[in-house]
Every structure is written in structure tokens, then in C-alpha cells.
Automatic annotation (TrEMBL), chains A, B:
Its EC number is 3.1.2.-. InterPro entries: Acyl-ACP_TE_C, Acyl-ACP_thioesterase_NHD, FATA/B, HotDog_dom_sf. Residues 69-202 form the Acyl-ACP thioesterase N-terminal hotdog domain. Plays an essential role in chain termination during de novo fatty acid synthesis. CDD domains: 4HBT. It comes from Chenopodium quinoa. GO terms for cellular component: chloroplast. GO terms for molecular function: acyl carrier activity; fatty acyl-[ACP] hydrolase activity. SUPFAM superfamilies: Thioesterase/thiol ester dehydrase-isomerase (SSF54637). Pfam families: Acyl-ACP_TE, Acyl-ACP_TE_C. Residues 232-328 form the Acyl-ACP thioesterase-like C-terminal domain. This is Acyl-[acyl-carrier-protein] hydrolase. Belongs to the acyl-ACP thioesterase family.
Length: 338, 338
């Protein structure tokens, strides 16, 4: 086993050292007063993905800590990722998390022969699909902020695998978001749920780590999300169709898009004046390019600023159910204080 | 005037130098055999945006070359940016270009008091809006590829400002895409077109550079895009509505979304078997959250694999017109060779 790569950095304002570096062949102007030094382990360049490409570039570099059990990756918030509150949209933050999660599954951190994409799973036609997602948002970053995402496997039972991500502002350490996603196993041909076979579970167990925080505590009441009945819905948005660019290479809708549709089906006054502080989502059904959906939402009777949601096909088949919790938008708060 | 930042890099496999660097205070393992050295000009750290944030992070670092007249930025293609051809979507590539263009306008490369966002423009309520975009695509990158975008001002007349971008694969130098965008000036209050005032043009002239390639040659026939008549349309997609996340902080639809809608209104067999090799788009009207649109397309009678497009509001008002040129998808080509 090749150990994971290590990155180390050093820095100096010693002009003598600058002269040493000058000898490397770099032409330095006389006014340089600071040096940044980065050291790579040449024997083990970071693998960027399962196509075996390597990265020597100064961006979005993956780190593997805890002996390769945690994938860390930085994302710079781009202007087109902002929503009307001038903050990174939830969709953007979940996309970052998805990218890191896929790298955890597919990168060399979890070996190809091992847990992520095993021969054993292939021979049984088993694949992982997302079943449930639980998210808490502390703050939303702005344009130019750098979001550090760390993702690891935090749980494994015979029914599901949990992956956890923690997002923080890489400059300030401010907490941004916490995501726990549960993956279940289905048969690729029949699309039916499968128990995780004992051999696969055993080969996965060593990867599960109580790193950083344990998974969010499971409240039984929350685990069983109630289904929103149509007659209790305050708002129904009809005729939602996936766009061409919402489809992934498997021609399925990217699961992050479900969240966008659920938010789209929330009353405009909520989206405009509030920001999402937490949600739980259960995926019930895949959808593809010809699906036409409806997004229903209704205010909770019990908790203030809580909503229940149902995403369904036009024939009534359930695609996802969700619960969202909102707080006053920090932009609105700011404006009303001025 | 503060000179733009310079970045220089050096590299060595000389173990003596490693020892020199070790003295900087970094703990190096004994098996390190390569060093990467990066030198920043301490007096002028790179500004990341007009909020004055600086970046010391190893990602998506902006470079200013040609004395600050060109902004360069790298983007790593993320998995969720792929389309069904397993290549970065056009939408993703145009978003990269937009991000770099905004940095050209807003970064310290074009001073705040100068050309991009001048006091003079503010006092006259003048703003830049995009009027026309001309794109040529050589190849589409894959997951994990690093796209280098370089953007500069390539032309300025009393009617419009042209910004040009060239996208290449940062590892191989392969050409990816070329974009020329024309910006026109409108009055923010009346939304009417304005000539570019002589003083503003004069202050902008020094920024215009014949860098890399000159703007795409202007073919008069192409300049005047014909409007697609409804009775010549082969395909009409109705009921397109912007989603919440399509809106920017000004509550307008991000202009890249127009391209997505135009592609969405192209027959499915075209999108599925072909990839876009070039397009020209003229923006006619802004749209917002309550707009409902139609996307029309029709095959050209003159050029094979060429289509004309019209994006309009349901009341018939024109939003954009476009011309697209397609070639057999490289994925399809590949599959048919196997």
C-alpha cells in the first residue's frame, strides 16, 4: 500500500534564502521580500481521479488525511454560484460536497479493488444510490470565499453507508455546513433495494471513522419523515421538467437538483426573506429526462419556520419527501439594522 | 500606479537545496526529492475581487500578464459539470469565462476609478450589458481536466467593448474554446442603449490589446443574424421558466442560462448525437423571475448541421436570437469506431 501524499509548506522573509532560490534558475526581481515554499512527495503525486490523472496545479488540490480516510478539497466560490441574497446558493454548496464525496468513493483513498467500486459489487449488479440526506447550515459564504470540504465514511450497517462532510471557511475557520448522506445498495437491473452483503460490509468496516464529529444524532421522529398530503399543501408548483444540463452521464437527474426543485416549490416570500438553516431529504425514486414533476410544500403546525415538502411525478408517484427549517436571511437582518 | 503582481516558479531535485529549505522551519521527510518554489511579490498580493480580499491559497489563482491587461485563471472540471457526453457542458465552460470576465472588469487589473466601474459611468447611470457573443469550440474537456482561461479587452468603439477569452487545457495546451463578447452601454434607469461617451472611451483605449489572437473576423452576413420565423421553426419548446437559482443578485437571469434554453429548444436527436462547435448569440432583452419563455429552432437551408434559434417571451417579445453549428459528438464517433 502506498501511503497517502503529504503536503508541507514553508515561508520566509529571509533575503539570503531568496538568493538561494535564485540559484534554482528563477529570475527574481530585486524587490522580492517573501518566499513561499511548497514541498511535494515526488514518489506519490496526488491522484485526481480514477482515470489516473495527476495534478501539479495550484488549485483545488485534494488532501488525504487520517491515512487516506478523509478527503479534503477547497472550492473558491464563483460569482455565478450566488443567489439573490448575494451568498453561495445551497445548490452550489451541495455540489461541492458531492464532488468531494465522489472523490472519496473513487480516488485512490478507497482502492478500486476495495470498498468503493468493488468487483464483488459488479458481479452481483449492486450499486450505491443516495437514500437520505441531512443538512445543517451555519452560514453561507460569499463570492471569493474559499470553502474547505472534508468528507469521510462515518457509518456502515447492513442497510446503509453514511458519508459525512464538514464545510468551513478556509480563511477564517467559520463553520458553513454539515452534511450526512446515507447510501443504500440497489440491484442495477431490478432497481430493488438490497441488504449490503456481509463480505462487502466486512471489507468496508475498516474505512469507517469517527473523524471530527460523529454523524448527527438520530431522532426517531425525524427519521420517519411524514409524507405531505396534497390537501395540507399551501403551495403546489406544477410542470417541472429537467433541463438537458440537469442530466448526468447516466441520463439521470443529478440528486442535488431535487433540492432546487423543493426550494422552488416553497412560497416565494419564504425564499426571499429567509435562508435555509437545516433540511432532511429522503429520495424515493430516480427521475430522468422525460419526467414531469410537481413540488408541494406546507407549513408545519408544530415548529415555527418549518415546512414539509413532497416532490412527485404527475401520475402521483413519490420522488422525494423533505422537511426544511428556515431563519431570517442574514442579508435581510443586515438591511433592517441599517 | 501599483504594478500588477508577478508570479514566478522554480523547481529543483537538488537535495542540497532541500536542506536549505529545511532551515525555513518546515519539517521535511527524508524521502523528499522534489521541491516546488513559488515567489510572490509581497508588496502587492493578488487581489481576488473588489471587496479587497486577498488569496494565499493554492487554487484558482488569478494571474495578470501583459502588465495587467490579461486575467488568467484555472478551473478544475467538476463531475457535476459534465453532460451526457461525459464532457464539461457548454454551460460550465461559459460560466468559467464569465467569472474571468467579471474579474477582468472588477479586479485591480482595471482600476476601480478607471475603465471598468467608473465614477463617470455611475454619475450618468450607465452600465455595461452583454449584447452579443461569438463562440468557437475546438474540444470539450473531461472530469478532472484543468481549464486555463485567459481574458482581455480586444476592442473598443463608440458602440461597444469587446472582451475575448481563450480556453486551453492547462496540462496539454490543447485548444478548448474561444469566446468574443460584445458589451454595450445602457442607461440603468431607462434601459435604453447609449453611445459610449468620448471620455469613457478615451480612458478605456489604453486597456485594449491585440493580445494572443485578434477578435474573430467579422463576416457581415454573420453579423446580422436572421430572425427565425415561427413558421420556419422545426421545434418549439414552450413554458420555460427561470428557477430561483438561475437568478443573480440583481434578480436577473444569468446570461449563460439563455444558452441552456436555446440548446433545450433544439431537437433531442441533435443534442444527443452532436456537439456544438460554434454559435453566435444576440441578446435583445433581459428577463427575470416571472418571465415565461419559448425556445424555437429550425435547420438552416444553406449550411449542413446549422440551426437558427429564437428565444422569446410568451407575448412574442424577442429575448435572444442565435445561430448554432454542430459536429458529430466525439463520444459517438469513438463508440462507432469500436
Amino acid at each position: 500500500m502506498v501511503p497517502p501524499s503529504k503536503l508541507m509548506r514553508g515561508r520566509s522573509i529571509d533575503n539570503n534564502n531568496a538568493i538561494n532560490l535564485y540559484n534554482f534558475g528563477t529570475s527574481l526581481p530585486s524587490h522580492v521580500t517573501r518566499l513561499q515554499v511548497k514541498v511535494d512527495n515526488f514518489q506519490d503525486p496526488l491522484k485526481i481521479n480514477n482515470f489516473g490523472k495527476t495534478v501539479n496545479h495550484e488549485l483545488e488540490k485534494r488532501r488525504f488525511t487520517q491515512d487516506g480516510y478523509v478527503v479534503g478539497q477547497n472550492f473558491l466560490v464563483r460569482l455565478y454560484e450566488l443567489d439573490i441574497h448575494e451568498k453561495a446558493s445551497l445548490e452550489a454548496l451541495l455540489n461541492y460536497t458531492q464532488e468531494t464525496g465522489l472523490n472519496l468513493f473513487q480516488s485512490s483513498g478507497l482502492r478500486v479493488e476495495g470498498f468503493g467500486v468493488s468487483k464483488e459489487m459488479n458481479s452481483r449488479n449492486l450499486i450505491w444510490v443516495i437514500g437520505r440526506m441531512q443538512v445543517e447550515v451555519d452560514s453561507y459564504p460569499s463570492w471569493g470565499d474559499i470553502v474547505q470540504v472534508e468528507t469521510w465514511c462515518s457509518g456502515l450497517t447492513k442497510h446503509c453507508l453514511t458519508c459525512s462532510s464538514r464545510l468551513t471557511d478556509a480563511n477564517t475557520g467559520t463553520k458553513i455546513m454539515r452534511v450526512d448522506s446515507e447510501f443504500v445498495m440497489i440491484n442495477e437491473k431490478t432497481r430493488r433495494l438490497s441488504r449490503i452483503p456481509e463480505e462487502i460490509k466486512a471489507s468496508g468496516d475498516p474505512y469507517v471513522k469517527d473523524y471530527l464529529d460523529p454523524p448527527l444524532s438520530v431522532d426517531d421522529k425525524l427519521r420517519k419523515l411524514q409524507k405531505l398530503d396534497e390537501d395540507k399543501a399551501d403551495y403546489i408548483l406544477r410542470g417541472i421538467k429537467p433541463l438537458w444540463f440537469d442530466l448526468d452521464p447516466n441520463q439521470h437527474v443529478n440528486n442535488v437538483k431535487y433540492i432546487s426543485w423543493i426550494l422552488e416549490g416553497t412560497p416565494e416570500a419564504v425564499r426571499e426573506n429567509y435562508e435555509l438553516s437545516a433540511f432532511t431529504l429522503e429520495y424515493r425514486r430516480e427521475c430522468g429526462r422525460n419526467s414531469v414533476l410537481q413540488s408541494l410544500s406546507g407549513a408545519s403546525n408544530e415548529v415555527p419556520n418549518e415546512y414539509y415538502h413532497l416532490l412527485r411525478l404527475e401520475n402521483g408517484n413519490e420522488v422525494a419527501r423533505a422537511r426544511t427549517l428556515w431563519r431570517k436571511s442574514s442579508k435581510i437582518e443586515c438591511n433592517s439594522m441599517n
